[in-house]
C-alpha cells in the first residue's frame, strides 16, 4: 500500500527512490529491510498494478523504473479504504478505554 | 538491487559521515540478504515449480553423469529385471491366461473319460485306447467312447457336444501332392465353437446321411497358401486320400481348432464323418476327443456332478467296458495348457525372483549413494534449503534413473520375447500370439520406480533429521549403521533368492542329464524314417499296401549307402498301437502290450538285438502259421519270467493263435521318458493278423542318412507319382526334439540363475565395501598398532562370511519350500537332492567369498595415517 501511494505521487521511480521516499515521509519511524521492497514490487508487477521499464539515472546508471497502472490505483483505493476501516475500529475501541 | 545498495551507501556517507567502507557495510545490512530477496522475487512468478523441476532434472542428469558406474549398473540392473519380467509374463499371459479366441470361450469344456482306481491296465479290455496317461488323482485319462456319448448328451448339461479327432490325409489332384492335417468332426463341432464360415456354409445333418457326397471345410490358411484365395474353390471338388470331397465352406481367418494348439503345422481341412456302427455300439473303444459348450445355468461343477451320476449308472449297467470309468470335464483352456502349466509358472516364479533381486540391488545402490552425499545434503540444509526441496531433488533423480531403466527394459524385453518365441519348442500352445503386455510392463516399471523413490528419498529424509554439524564434520561420511543394517538385510535376501534359483537350475540340469543319458534300447543314429500313407482309394486291401512296400524295399535296398531297409506300421518314436490279447490258459483275462507290424529288415535297421529264437523271416507270410517276436519285458511282466519261446496268444476269441518264435531286447518305443513295456512284433507280411496299416518306412545308412532322402523319394514317385512322402526325419532328430522342451526350460532357468548370481554378487561386493569404509578409522588404528594385514583381511572376510552364511541358510530353507512345486518337472532326482544343494551352496559361497575378498584386501591395505585422519 505504501509503495503504491508513493508511486502515485510521482510519475515513475526506481527502487531506491521509493525506499528513500517512504523513509523520508515517515520520518524514519518505519524502518524496513530495504531488500524486502523488491519481492513486493515483483508481486505487484505480476498482478498488473505496476509496470516497469529499464531506464537510466542521472548518473547514467541502469535502473528499473516503476509506474502505477489504473488497476493499481483502484487497488490502492481499496486498500486505503480497508485501512481506514481498521483504523476507525481501533480508534473506537481506544476511545472507550 | 546493486544500485540500491550503492546509492544507500552514498546517502549514508553523505548524511552520517564515516568511511566509505562502513557506509557500504551499513547499507548492506539495511538491505538484507540479497540472494534471499532475489529468490523470493523470482518465487513470485509462480513458474517456480516448473522451473525448479527443469533445474532438478538437469541437475539429476548431471549427477548421474558424474558417477557413470553407478548409473550404468543401476540402469543395467533395472533393464535386466524389467525386461525379463515383461518377456516371461507376456508368454505366460498368451499361453495360459488369455481367453481362447472363441465366442464366450469360458463355457467351452473338454470331455474325457477316466479310469479310476488301481486297475491293472493290462486287464482293461479297451482296444486301441489312445489315451493320455496324466489323469487327475492318478487316474488314467482316455479319449471318449462315442458309444457313451448319447448318455452324456442326455444329461442336458451341454448346449452342444461334439466329437473330433485328428488325422492326416493326402491332398492330390491340385498341384503337388501333400499330406495335410485334417480334423474329423461330428455334426455339432462348429456349433459348439460357434463359428460362422467366411464363405459358403458349414456341415449339417444332410451331409452325414448315407449316400451323401463327402464334403470338406477348408481353413483360411490353406485357401491362401495353396489356392490363391480363388473364390471358385467353393463348390469345387478336391481329392482327399483319393476320394472326392466337395468344398462347401471356407473358415474365417484366424480360426483355430482346439487340436491346433498342440501342433506347429496348421490344420487345413475339417471333414464331417459319420461314425461307423462298430464305434457307436462298442463302449470299450475310446478313439475320439470331445469338446462341448455348457448349457446356460450350468457350471463346470454342476455339469460334472450330473455326469458322475450317469457314469456310475453306466458303470453298473455295462461293467465289462464301463467299470470304474468316469466322464470328466475341464475348461477347454486349462486342458490345452495343462502340459505346460507347471513349467511356465516355475519360470514366472524364477523371473519374479530376478526382478526382486534387481530392485534390491538398485535400492542398495541408491542407499549408498545417498549416504555418500550426506555431507552435501547437510550443507544445503545449512544454507537454507527446505526439506521438501531436497527430497524433491532426490525424487527427480530416482525417477530419472527409473525412467531410463524402464525404457531400456522395454527394449530389452521386446527383444527377449522375440528370442524366446523363436527358440521355444514346438509344443507350447499359443506361443506365437505372445506380444508385449502393457499391464506387465506397467507393473514392473511401477515396482522399479517405487523402489527407486523409496530408497532414494528415505535417506534424504533421514539426512534432514540429522544435525548438519555432524555431517559437516565428517562423522557421517561413512556413517549410518542403520543404513548398513538395511543393506545387510537386503543382501541376505538377495543371496537367499539366488540360492533358490541356483538350486532349481541345478535340479533341472540333473534331470536333463538323466533323461539325455537314458538308453533307448535301440540305435537311432543314422536311421532315417518317413511316412508313406497309402490312400484307400488306390490301395484298398492290406495285400496291395504290403506289395507297395515290399517293392519299395527291394528298390531302395539297391541304393548305395543303404545298410538296412525296413517298413512297419510305425517306427519307434513315431507313435504306435497297443492291443489286448489273451493266453490260452486264461481266456477271460485280457493283457495289453504294444504291438507293431514289422518287415524282415526291421530289427537290423533300428539296431535291436535278438536274444533268443529267431527274427521275422521272409517265409512268414499269409497262409503260413502266425508268428510273433516279443521282448524281454513281455516274458518278465506277462509270463512271470518264464521263457516266451513257444508260447501262444491271440487277440480275440475269433482271432488266430499266434506263436512266439523269438525274443528281442527291450526298447523305449516312445522316447527317453517312457518305461519299457511289453512289445509284440508281428510279421508285416501276415496281413490278416493285424488291423493297422503299414505306413512308416526307414533305412539305416552308412553315411548321413539325410543325403538319401531325395533318392528314396524318387523311388516312391517312380512307383506312384501321386504319393507324398511326409515326416521325413532321422530318429536322432526326433530324440533331440523330444528333449526340446526340457532343454528350453533348463536354458531359461540357467539364464535366470546366472542373472541372479551376478546381481547378488554385486550386492555382496557393495555391502562389504561399505563395511570396510565404515570401519576404516578402526582398521587404521589396528594397523597402526601393529596388526597383521592378513588378520585384518580375515576379520572382514569373517564378517562377510556371516552375512553370506545367513543368506545361504535362508536360501536353502526357501529352496526346500519351493522345489516341491517343481517336482513334476524333475526326472530321476528328488526335490531335496543333497548333492545339488551342496554344489549350489559351495558355488555361491565361493563366489561370494571372491566378491568379498576385493574390499577385504583393500581393508588390509588401509594406510593408517589416512584412516586416523578421518577422525
List the domain count of chain A as a whole number. 1
What gap, in angstroms, lies between the N and C termini of chain A? 29 Å
Please compute the radius of gyration of chain A using only Cα atoms: 16 Å
Q: Into which percentage range does the β-strand content of chain B fall?
A: 15-25%
Q: What average pLDDT do the residues of chain A reach? A: 82
Label the overall shape of chain A.
Answer: globular
Task: Please tell me the total number of domains of chain B.
Answer: 5
Low-confidence stretches of chain A: none
**What is the end-to-end distance of chain B?**
44 Å
The major sheet of chain B is characterized as: 7 strands, mixed
- Count up the helices of chain A: 4
Low-confidence stretches of chain B: 118-137
Shape estimate of chain B: elongated
Q: What is the mean pLDDT of chain B? A: 82
Question: Helix tally of chain B?
Answer: 26
What is the quaternary state of this protein? heterodimer
How many DSSP-defined strands of chain A? 3
Amino acid at each position: 500500500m505504501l509503495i503504491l501511494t508513493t508511486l502515485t505521487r510521482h510519475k515513475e521511480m526506481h527502487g531506491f527512490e521509493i525506499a528513500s521516499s517512504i523513509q523520508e515521509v515517515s520520518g524514519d519511524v518505519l524502518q524496513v529491510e530495504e531488500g524486502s521492497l523488491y519481492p513486493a514490487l515483483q508481486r505487484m508487477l505480476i498482478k498488473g498494478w505496476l509496470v516497469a521499464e529499464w531506464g537510466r539515472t542521472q548518473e547514467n546508471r541502469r535502473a528499473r523504473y516503476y509506474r502505477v497502472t489504473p488497476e493499481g490505483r483502484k487497488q490502492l483505493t481499496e486498500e486505503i479504504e480497508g485501512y481506514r476501516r481498521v483504523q476507525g475500529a481501533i480508534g473506537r475501541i481506544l476511545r472507550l478505554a | 538491487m546493486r544500485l540500491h545498495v550503492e546509492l544507500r551507501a552514498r546517502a549514508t556517507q553523505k548524511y552520517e559521515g564515516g568511511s566509505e567502507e562502513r557506509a557500504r557495510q551499513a547499507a548492506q545490512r539495511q538491505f538484507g540478504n540479497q540472494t534471499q530477496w532475489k529468490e523470493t522475487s523470482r518465487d513470485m512468478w509462480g513458474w517456480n515449480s516448473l522451473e525448479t523441476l527443469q533445474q532438478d532434472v538437469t541437475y539429476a542428469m548431471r549427477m548421474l553423469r558424474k558417477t557413470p558406474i553407478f548409473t550404468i549398473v543401476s540402469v543395467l540392473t533395472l533393464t535386466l529385471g524389467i525386461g525379463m519380467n515383461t518377456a516371461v509374463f507376456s508368454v505366460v499371459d498368451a499361453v495360459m491366461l488369455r481367453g481362447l479366441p472363441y465366442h464366450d470361450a469360458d463355457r467351452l469344456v473338454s470331455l474325457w473319460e477316466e479310469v479310476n482306481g488301481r486297475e491293472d491296465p493290462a486287464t482293461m479290455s479297451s482296444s486301441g485306447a489312445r489315451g493320455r496317461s496324466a489323469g487327475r488323482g492318478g487316474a488314467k485319462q482316455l479319449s471318449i467312447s462315442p458309444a457313451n456319448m448319447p448318455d452324456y448328451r442326455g444329461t442336458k448339461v451341454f448346449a452342444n457336444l461334439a466329437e473330433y479327432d485328428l488325422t492326416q490325409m493326402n491332398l492330390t489332384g491340385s498341384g503337388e501332392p501333400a499330406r495335410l492335417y485334417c480334423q474329423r468332426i461330428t455334426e455339432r463341432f462348429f456349433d459348439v465353437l460357434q463359428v460362422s464360415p467366411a464363405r459358403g456354409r458349414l456341415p449339417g445333418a444332410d451331409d452325414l446321411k448315407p449316400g451323401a457326397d463327402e464334403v470338406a471345410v477348408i481353413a483360411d490358411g490353406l485357401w491362401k497358401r495353396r489356392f490363391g484365395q480363388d473364390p471358385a474353390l467353393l463348390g469345387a471338388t478336391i481329392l482327399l486320400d483319393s476320394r472326392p470331397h466337395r468344398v462347401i465352406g471356407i473358415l474365417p481367418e484366424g480360426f483355430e481348432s482346439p487340436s491346433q494348439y498342440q501342433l506347429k503345422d496348421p490344420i487345413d481341412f475339417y471333414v464331417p464323418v459319420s461314425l461307423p456302427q462298430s464305434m457307436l455300439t462298442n463302449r470299450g473303444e475310446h478313439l475320439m476327443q470331445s469338446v462341448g459348450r455348457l448349457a446356460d445355468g450350468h457350471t463346470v461343477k454342476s455339469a460334472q456332478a450330473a455326469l458322475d451320476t450317469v457314469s456310475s449308472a453306466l458303470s453298473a449297467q455295462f461293467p465289462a467296458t464301463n467299470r470304474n470309468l468316469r466322464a470328466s470335464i475341464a475348461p477347454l483352456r486349462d486342458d490345452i495348457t495343462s502340459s505346460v502349466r507347471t513349467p511356465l509358472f516355475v519360470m514366472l516364479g524364477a523371473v519374479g525372483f530376478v526382478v526382486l533381486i534387481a530392485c534390491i540391488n538398485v535400492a542398495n545402490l541408491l542407499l549408498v549413494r545417498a549416504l555418500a552425499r550426506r555431507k552435501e545434503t547437510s550443507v544445503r540444509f545449512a544454507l537454507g534449503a527446505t526439506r521438501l526441496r531436497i527430497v524433491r531433488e532426490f525424487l527427480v533423480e530416482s525417477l530419472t534413473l527409473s525412467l531410463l531403466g524402464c525404457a531400456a527394459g522395454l527394449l530389452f524385453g521386446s527383444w527377449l520375447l522375440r528370442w524366446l518365441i523363436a527358440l521355444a519348442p514346438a509344443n507350447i500352445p499359443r506361443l506365437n500370439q505372445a506380444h508385449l503386455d502393457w499391464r506387465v510392463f506397467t507393473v514392473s516399471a511401477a515396482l522399479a520406480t517405487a523402489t527407486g523413490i523409496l530408497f532414494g528419498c528415505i535417506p534424504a529424509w533421514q539426512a534432514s533429521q540429522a544435525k548438519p554439524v555432524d555431517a559437516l564434520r565428517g562423522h557421517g561420511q561413512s556413517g549410518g549403521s542403520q543404513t548398513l543394517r538395511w543393506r545387510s538385510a537386503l543382501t541376505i535376501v538377495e543371496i537367499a533368492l539366488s540360492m533358490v534359483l541356483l538350486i532349481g537350475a541345478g535340479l533341472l540340469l540333473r534331470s536333463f542329464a538323466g533323461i539325455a543319458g537314458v538308453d533307448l534300447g535301440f540305435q537311432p543314429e543314422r536311421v532315417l524314417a518317413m511316412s508313406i500313407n497309402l490312400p484307400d482309394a488306390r490301395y484298398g486291401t492290406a495285400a496291395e499296401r504290403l506289395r507297395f512296400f515290399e517293392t519299395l524295399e527291394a528298390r531302395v535296398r539297391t541304393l548305395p549307402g543303404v545298410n538296412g531297409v525296413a517298413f512297419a506300421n510305425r517306427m519307434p518314436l513315431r507313435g504306435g498301437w497297443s492291443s489286448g490279447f489273451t493266453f490260452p490258459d486264461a481266456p477271460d483275462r485280457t493283457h495289453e502290450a504294444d504291438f507293431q507290424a514289422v518287415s524282415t529288415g526291421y530289427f537290423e535297421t533300428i539296431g535291436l538285438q535278438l536274444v533268443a529264437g529267431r527274427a521275422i523271416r521272409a517265409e512268414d507270410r499269409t497262409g503260413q502259421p502266425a508268428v510273433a517276436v516279443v521282448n524281454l519285458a513281455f516274458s518278465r511282466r506277462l509270463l512271470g519270467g518264464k521263457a516266451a519261446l513257444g508260447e501262444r496268444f491271440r487277440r480275440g476269441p475269433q482271432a488266430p493263435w499266434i506263436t512266439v518264435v523269438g525274443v528281442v531286447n527291450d526298447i523305449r518305443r516312445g522316447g527317453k521318458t517312457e518305461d519299457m513295456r511289453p512289445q509284440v512284433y508281428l510279421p508285416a507280411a501276415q496281413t490278416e493278423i493285424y488291423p493297422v496299416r503299414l505306413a512308416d518306412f526307414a533305412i539305416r545308412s552308412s553315411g548321413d542318412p539325410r543325403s538319401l532322402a531325395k533318392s528314396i523319394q524318387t523311388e516312391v514317385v517312380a512307383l506312384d507319382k501321386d504319393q507324398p512322402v511326409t515326416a521325413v526325419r532321422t530318429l536322432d532328430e526326433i530324440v533331440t526334439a523330444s528333449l526340446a522342451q526340457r532343454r528350453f526350460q533348463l536354458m531359461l532357468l540357467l539364464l535366470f540363475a546366472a542373472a541372479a548370481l551376478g546381481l547378488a554378487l554385486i550386492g555382496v561386493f557393495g555391502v562389504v565395501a561399505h563395511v570396510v569404509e565404515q570401519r576404516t578409522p578402526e582398521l587404521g588404528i589396528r594397523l597402526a598398532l601393529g596388526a597383521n594385514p592378513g588378520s585384518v583381511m580375515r576379520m572382514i572376510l569373517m564378517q562377510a562370511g556371516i552375512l553370506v552364511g545367513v543368506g545361504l541358510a535362508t536360501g536353502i530353507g526357501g529352496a526346500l519350500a519351493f522345489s516341491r512345486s517343481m517336482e513334476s518337472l524333475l526326472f530321476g532326482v528328488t526335490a531335496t537332492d543333497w548333492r545339488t544343494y551342496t554344489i549350489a551352496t559351495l558355488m555361491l559361497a565361493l563366489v561370494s567369498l571372491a566378491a568379498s575378498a576385493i574390499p577385504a584386501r583393500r581393508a588390509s591395505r588401509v594406510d593408517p595415517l589416512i584412516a586416523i585422519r578421518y577422525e
